[in-house]
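A student in our group prepared the protein record below, which I am reviewing. I have pasted the whole thing underneath without changing anything:
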Amino acid sequence: MNFRFLPIALLAVSAVQAEVKLPAVISDHMVLQRDVAAPIWGTAAAGEEVSVSVAGQTKSTKADANGKWLVKLDPLAVAEGLSLTVTGTNTIEVKDVLVGDVWLGSGQSNMAGPVRTYKGKDAVLQKLLEGAPYPKLRFKRQGDSKWELATPQTVDAFSALLFPFGVRVQEEIKVPVGLMMGCVGGTPSGFWLTEEMYRSDAACVAQAKEFAKTYDLAAAMKGYERYMAAWKQTQEKAKKDNVQPKGREPRKPTPAGESYGQIGNLYEKYIQPYVPYAIRGVLWDQGEGGTAITGVDQYHVMGALIKGWRGAFGQDFPFIYVQKVSGGGTAWDMSDPVTINASPFAPLPTQLPRNIDGLHREVHIKIQQHPKTAMVIATDLGGMTHPTNKSGYGARAARVALGFVYDKPVEISGPLYAAHQIDGDKVRIKFTHVGKGLAARHSEKLQGFMIAGADKKFQWADAVIDGDSVVVSSAAVPAPKAVRYAWSNVAPWANLFNKDGLPAQTFRTDNWQ
């Protein structure tokens, strides 16, 4: 071996290792969050002096023993065309930096789906695409991609939900907006928070323990083995008949509180690289994939996720999420481009909903009870697994952000159950988010309410709006004990709205099983 060039080679390697480096999220065209101490971080040689300069300020630090460094900028006002310089043994200039508001979009396929997939089915989305470029809108796709300008090409490949959300927000707040993505189709919420976030959450732990009291894992395993045997036979027959096998392999049961997959794997891959970038808030669209944690529901996992993300980023940011199940209800105005895919108003079904029919909606509506969290109502936006009206979803999400985060004078929710009072043979239901007032739509008769007495046998009820309340009764129930409204995943027959055009949400006054 020739050792003559070894010292030179070692010096070259050492120089490379000593170079200041930045993560992908700190790159040309980036948007820095205004009015906060925005972190800038990277790697360098252990002990190396690093300085960061932007907009007349300079912050300095030393890389730690692992070569990691971080500074926090003094809060910046809205700005455009800045350069951020990072200097160590080398110098990096980050060009075309804007200062405004940054939103992180996450979840599963309805967040991940690109504009190119939906533009042919969504005229408004197509028009927004044709309006590009948007100079004050910037994109950051997940992975090692850098920040991008909002050109027709980048818009076409970006989230079909997050893009119209960003356009609308930017138009209203008149400051630059940066949009970052971290989403994967078909994924459960349990993969989007770390193991520590989940295990340290007292509410999640308590629900898992409570579920374990009545969960028969041995019986679940026997059922799994039967299904697995039948599935294998089906697969073998399909192969023998030379046809495409159908159905998914049954999933092996797991103990209460445990997951069939790796808790946190998606967080580590798609969210951790953004930490601790300063953001204005999160827009989340996930729920079809459940939690993947046995016995722990979406309300509890999302509570741990929201709290955990805020802790990881070191920011108490607002968290906005899209309601699940999508669609299933009628809209105030079926001609409005936002709600054009809603279900037509329908008569009451002859068969009343079952006890279980509204549970999924109830859990998702409850998520907004977590602090600084708001729900994007989606019952009137059109359904399917992948709703095609992405511009409508983006516009509705922007409406919530404008009212909830930016204090614009817009109503962000339809009527939400607040309390009830039983008075003889009538029940008075009180609501929050009555907006400009309560109203029945598409019919003079208000419908969608059920009422029951102590026998727990529900009947369709008569319902009358009285100011900011609804009074519910039935001749068949002289001593009422409980009321339910829109108690189903699909309720086009429920027609209570506020006059701001937003539908009332599923609720029940009882906890009967």
